[in-house]
């Protein structure tokens, strides 16, 4: 096989303040024509940075400190802007993670699609447009003749991601770089996009670098996988070999969250449920988002609410927390009807239920030090002051496994994503609640960090008997920690029951679709699921 | 808030220059009676003396020492501008944050009221009010502060609306925090960067506005020395000056002295504000 891309001993540095720190440390990479390489690692591993250098591009604030990048025999390190411009978009294409942010919202899709082929002089506009329609069809976009004439906000996220892949194919490139193309999508959408991407890459015989943090996804897409950790290569092996027999402990830990098992619980005590939602409707303006939702949360147990985005999971939480006024139905907390607005709830009642948000970044005031973040609920609900408060803050920090002396005076900006989420958990715990609503608390985190958070939540529940209403779209998480599962779609509860019952066969078609769409650690999973669905449809 | 004094040793040169200039102005303003060689309204010699000792910057039409009047002018003009800007920020920020946080009809009423106020050309509006109330220092401060608070209102409301979408505001609301806490502790620290930047800019505008009013005769009243009226009094001299020799040319430069004083202070304030802004936005991320 001839080498399309050869990266040798590449060093990349990024600037922070006045000094440079190394992001990629001497990584080498080979890619043959038509080969698909998966780059995998947690955030900060340097996988996107490495992927971008394959186009000879480094992000602003970064620089190539050493090494060489040869694309089809041509050196890209130190190549002129003109040389790079000739390659990019024509022979090397890039598909970004957030297609919604990568498309120009002011232009129709097809106009953006035709930009590269026309600018590079590959083909005239009319031919490029005809070609675009053909590619849209190939990507299985609905109504390929017309969809190109829509604006980016007029198509769904999954369609936009496919349109972006089609755009990358416009000049029939030799190499495509996919940077987490399905990370922001729901599982049910992800499977369609994965199938479309895989087929188009195979049919055109293009080589690809597929960047992701999800090993199960990479198993479907790649021929070979390279695992990165903190800018260094951990392992590089053909995908089947790595899955069957990972050499390094770090590689094995990448699917840790899928194997996390909570400590067993005592059988449920026969006490009345803590939270009961009964026939709740809710709407934003005239748009109805919840319809007749009913569920119960028992004491000391975890109820997981699953569903794709827009299914009403978070809205249910907002109704419970008093942020959204329910149009109908009743919410009961500990046997008493819950007032519908925050203003009508007593401080004692507010204290008993707390919420943890998905984005710890925006849930912590960037100007408040940890001392203040944790101190406020202690002062506000429990009336703690001075030394007592300080001692309790330190206890809480110890409980979330952050050394108090090092962390108590930090600002949120000085914490990592996982540490921020731990602080949010501590803030909820500070109030000594009986119910905590966890709104996608692990979705923005890496697998390993997410696993740590789940362990922490599990331990807290065992020690304090707190109930969780756990909102997530990630079924691996549900499998790990839920006792009881509620499946939602289009603002309705499709199915609910014990975890074991939901995860065993014989259930609602939607639950089936949702469950079967979760990628598995099996390179044949995607083909198998698609075959099954095709067979079921015919 | 942003312990900017703490960062003083690492301040860039531009900020140091700005601080030094402001310091000089402050000393001149505070100790004006000790520094100035003559009294504020004292007729010290003949009219229109050239720039020679003992009148290093000459005398004006009434024979008052220009240097002394410049020094006293710092006290009057800068002092009033500072008070006015602070007052404008107090009113504007309080109302702006309130309107954004409470929303609903409070926001609508306040915003429309501010719109009406902004629709009237401020100079003409100020002239009108000051003609009615008389041009006392208190009236001057109040009128300009109210007129200027409209801009501050708009800015603080817009900034607060961005901050209000953040989850930590939701967290505070769910905790049951009152309006006061949310505005003071959650929103204000995050809105400070743009507000500080605006403060520097507003201060300069207020300063120029007072000078403009004085120039039109409705600002500080004679014989109080202030830079705006000093420009007005000597403006005509430019056209009469004889620039043939240095001695006679100084006569024509008279209006430029207070104007330069205004310009230098404006630049100095902005140098410092740039730095404080850099500091506070740096703390943000």
UniProtKB/TrEMBL annotation, chain A:
Gene Ontology biological-process entries: peptide transport
Gene3D superfamilies given in the database record: P-loop containing nucleotide triphosphate hydrolases
Annotated ranges, domain ABC transporter: 5-255, 275-515
GO CC entries: plasma membrane
Keywords: ATP-binding, Cell membrane, Membrane, Nucleotide-binding, Transport
GO MF assignments: ATP binding; ATP hydrolysis activity
Compartment(s) where it occurs, according to its Swiss-Prot or TrEMBL record: Cell inner membrane
InterPro entries cross-referenced by the UniProt entry: AAA+_ATPase, ABC_Ni/Peptide_Import, ABC_transporter-like_ATP-bd, ABC_transporter-like_CS, Oligopep_ABC_C, P-loop_NTPase
UniProt topology in membrane: Peripheral membrane protein
NCBIfam families from the UniProt entry: PRK10419.1 (NF007739)
Similarity field: Belongs to the ABC transporter superfamily.
PANTHER family attached to this UniProt entry: DIPEPTIDE TRANSPORT ATP-BINDING PROTEIN DPPD (PTHR43297:SF2), OLIGOPEPTIDE TRANSPORT ATP-BINDING PROTEIN APPD (PTHR43297)
Name this polypeptide is given: Peptide/nickel transport system ATP-binding protein
Source organism (scientific name): Gemmobacter caeni
Automatic annotation (TrEMBL), chain B:
ABC transmembrane type-1 domain mapped to chain residues: 74-277
Compartment(s) where it occurs, according to its Swiss-Prot or TrEMBL record: Cell membrane
Pfam families the UniProt entry points to: BPD_transp_1 (PF00528)
Gene Ontology BP, a term: transmembrane transport
Transmembrane residue ranges: 15-36, 77-103, 123-147, 199-220, 256-277
Alphabetized InterPro entries for the sequence: BP-dependent_transpt_permease (IPR050366), MetI-like (IPR000515), MetI-like_sf (IPR035906)
Membrane topology: Multi-pass membrane protein
Predominant subcellular localization, coarse grouping: membrane
Domain of life: Bacteria
Keywords: Cell membrane, Membrane, Transmembrane, Transmembrane helix, Transport
Ribosomal protein is among the record's keywords: no
GO cellular component, one term: plasma membrane
Record family assignment: Belongs to the binding-protein-dependent transport system permease family.
This protein's name: Peptide/nickel transport system permease protein
Taxonomic source organism: Gemmobacter caeni
């Amino acid at each position: 096989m001839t080498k399309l891309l050869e990266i040798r001993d590449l060093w990349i540095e990024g600037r922070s303040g006045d000094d440079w720190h190394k992001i990629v440390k001497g990584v080498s990479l080979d890619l043959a024509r038509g080969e698909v390489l998966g780059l995998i690692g947690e955030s900060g591993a340097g996988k996107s940075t490495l992927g971008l250098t394959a186009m000879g591009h480094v992000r602003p604030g970064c620089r190539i400190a050493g090494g060489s990048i040869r694309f089809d025999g041509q050196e890209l390190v130190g190549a002129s802007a003109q040389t790079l411009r000739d390659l990019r978009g024509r022979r090397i294409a890039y598909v970004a993670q957030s297609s919604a942010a990568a498309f120009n919202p002011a232009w129709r899709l097809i106009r953006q699609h035709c930009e590269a082929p026309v600018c590079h002089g590959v083909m005239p506009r009319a031919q490029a447009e005809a070609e675009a329609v053909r590619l849209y069809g190939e990507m299985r976009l609905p109504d390929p003749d017309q969809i190109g004439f829509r604006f980016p906000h007029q198509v769904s996220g999954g369609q936009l991601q496919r349109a972006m892949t089609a755009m990358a194919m416009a000049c029939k490139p030799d190499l495509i770089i996919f940077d987490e193309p399905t990370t922001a999508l729901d599982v049910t959408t992800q499977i369609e996009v994965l199938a479309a991407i895989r087929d188009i890459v195979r049919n055109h015989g293009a080589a690809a670098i597929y960047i992701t943090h999800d090993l199960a996804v990479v198993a479907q897409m790649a021929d070979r996988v390279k695992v990165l950790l903190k800018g260094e290569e951990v392992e590089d092996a053909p995908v089947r070999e790595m899955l069957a027999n990972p050499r390094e402990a770090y590689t094995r830990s990448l699917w840790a969250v899928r194997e996390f098992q909570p400590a067993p619980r005592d059988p449920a005590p026969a006490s009345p449920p803590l939270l009961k939602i009964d026939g709740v409707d809710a709407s934003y303006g005239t748009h109805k988002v919840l319809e007749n939702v009913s569920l119960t949360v028992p004491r000391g147990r975890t109820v997981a609410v699953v569903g794709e985005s827009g299914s009403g999971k978070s809205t249910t939480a907002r109704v419970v927390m008093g942020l959204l006024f329910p149009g109908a139905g009743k919410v009961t907390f500990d046997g008493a009807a819950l007032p519908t607005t925050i203003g009508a709830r007593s401080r004692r009642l507010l204290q008993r239920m707390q919420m943890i948000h998905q984005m710890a970044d925006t849930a912590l005031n960037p100007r408040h030090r940890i001392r203040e973040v944790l101190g406020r609920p202690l002062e506000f609900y429990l009336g703690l002051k001075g030394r007592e408060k300080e001692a309790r803050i330190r206890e809480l920090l110890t409980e979330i496994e952050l050394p108090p002396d090092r962390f108590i005076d930090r600002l949120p900006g000085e914490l990592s994503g996982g540490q921020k989420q731990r602080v949010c958990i501590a803030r909820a715990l500070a109030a000594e609640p009986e119910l905590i609503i966890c709104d996608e608390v692990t979705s923005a985190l890496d697998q390993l960090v997410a696993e740590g958070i789940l362990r922490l939540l599990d331990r807290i529940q065992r020690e304090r008997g707190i109930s969780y209403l756990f909102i997530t779209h990630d079924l691996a998480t549900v499998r790990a920690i839920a006792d009881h599962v509620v499946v939602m779609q289009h603002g309705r509860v499709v199915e609910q029951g014990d975890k074991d019952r939901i995860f065993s066969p014989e259930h609602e078609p939607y639950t089936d679709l949702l469950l079967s769409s979760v990628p598995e650690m099996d390179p044949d999973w995607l083909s198998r699921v698609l075959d099954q669905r095709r067979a079921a449809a015919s | 808030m942003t312990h900017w004094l703490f960062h003083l040793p690492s301040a860039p040169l531009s900020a140091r220059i700005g601080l030094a200039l402001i310091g000089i102005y402050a000393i001149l303003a505070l100790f004006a009676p000790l520094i100035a060689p003559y009294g504020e309204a004292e007729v010290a010699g003949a009219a229109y003396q050239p720039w020679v000792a003992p009148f290093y910057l000459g005398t004006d039409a009434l024979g008052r020492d220009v240097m002394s009047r410049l020094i006293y002018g710092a006290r009057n003009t800068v002092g009033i501008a500072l008070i006015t800007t602070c007052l404008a920020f107090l009113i504007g920020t309080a109302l702006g944050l309130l309107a954004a946080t409470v929303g609903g009809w409070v926001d609508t009423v306040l915003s429309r009221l501010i719109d009406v106020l902004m629709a009237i050309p401020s100079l003409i509006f100020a002239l009108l009010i000051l003609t009615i109330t008389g041009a006392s220092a208190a009236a001057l401060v109040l009128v300009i502060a109210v007129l200027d608070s409209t801009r501050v209102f708009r800015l603080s409301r817009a900034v607060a609306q961005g901050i209000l979408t953040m989850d930590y505001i939701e967290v505070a609301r769910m905790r049951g925090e009152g309006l006061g806490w949310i505005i003071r502790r959650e929103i204000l620290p995050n809105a400070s960067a743009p507000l500080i930047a605006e403060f520097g800019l507003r201060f300069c505008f207020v300063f120029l506005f007072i000078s403009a009013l004085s120039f039109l005769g409705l600002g500080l009243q004679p014989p109080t020395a202030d830079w705006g009226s000093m420009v007005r009094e000597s403006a005509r001299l430019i056209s009469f000056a004889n620039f043939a020799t240095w001695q006679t040319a100084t006569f024509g430069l008279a209006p430029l002295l207070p104007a330069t004083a205004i310009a230098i202070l404006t630049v100095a304030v902005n140098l410092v504000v740039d730095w404080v802004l850099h500091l506070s936005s740096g703390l943000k991320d």
